[in-house]
Amino acid sequence: MEAILHLHNLNKSYAGFPALKNVDLEVEPGRIMGILGPNGSGKTTLIKIVAGLLQPSSGEVMVCGMVPGMQTKALVSYLPDVNHLPTWMTIPGLIQYFNAFYEDFDPERAFGLLDRLGIDQSRKVTALSKGTREKLKLALALARRARLYLMDELLEGIDPVARMVTIDTILEHFDTKGSLIIATHLITDVEKLLDEVVFLKEGEIILSGSTEDLRLEKKRSIEGIYKEIFS
C-alpha cells in the first residue's frame, strides 16, 4: 500500500537557522498521526511544507506519490492555525465559495457538520467567537473528500467542552480512505484520536511510533511521555 505522505531527510532553514532537521516520516492511508511538540518545535513549518506552501531547503517530500504542487493541493485539505476565512461572508456564502473552489467539497456534508458542531448558519463570520470560527474551519476542512487532511493547532481557542465535541466529530466523519495529521501541543484532548505520534523537538524527531506500542513500552500515556520529553 502506497503511503499518502512520504518525507525523507527533510530539512528547512530560515536565514541559516534550522527549523527542521533530517525528518523522515511516512503516513499510510486510514491513519491519524499526531505531530506533537511545544511552540517553536517546527510543527507548523512541517505542515506548510506538506501543504505546498513552503519549499524545503533539502530532502524529499511526496504526497500521494507526487512532489507538492497544484496537483497535490487538490488532494490536501489544510486547516491552518490562523483565521483564513473572509470575515464579511455569511456561512452559506462560504459553503458556496468552497463548493465552487474545491471539486471534492461536499456541501451537504458541510451543513451536517455545522449542525453537529452547533454553529448558527445564519451568521456572518465576523460575528462568530474565536472558538466558533475554529469549529467552522474544521467543518469546512472535513467537508472535503481529500486524501490528506492537515490540521495545525486544531483545538487552539476552543473551550474544553467544545473540544470534546470537536474530537468526537472528527472520529465520526474521518474518511479512512485518507489520512489525517494533527499538529498540536494539547495532548490530553487529542490522544484518543491518534494511531501514531511523532515527537518533534527543535526541528528533530526524537521519538515516534504507534500510540499503542509507545504506551506499552513506556508504561504511561502519550501525555505522560510528552511531559517526560518536554518538561
Under CATH, the topology can be stated as Rossmann fold
Strand content: 25-35%
SSE order, one letter for each helix or strand: EEEHEHEHHHEHEHEEHH
**Overall SS class:** alpha/beta
> Based on DSSP secondary structure assignment, what is the total number of beta strands?
9
CATH superfamily caption = P-loop containing nucleotide triphosphate hydrolases
In helices, the fraction of residues equals 25-40%
From the coordinates shown, what is the CATH architecture?
Answer: 3-Layer(aba) Sandwich
Strand order of the largest sheet: 5-6-7-3-8-9
First CA to last CA: what distance? 38 Å
Query: Which sheet architecture does the biggest sheet show?
Result: 6 strands, mixed
Label the overall shape.
globular
Total domain units: 1
Mean pLDDT rating: 92
- Highest CATH level, the class: Alpha Beta
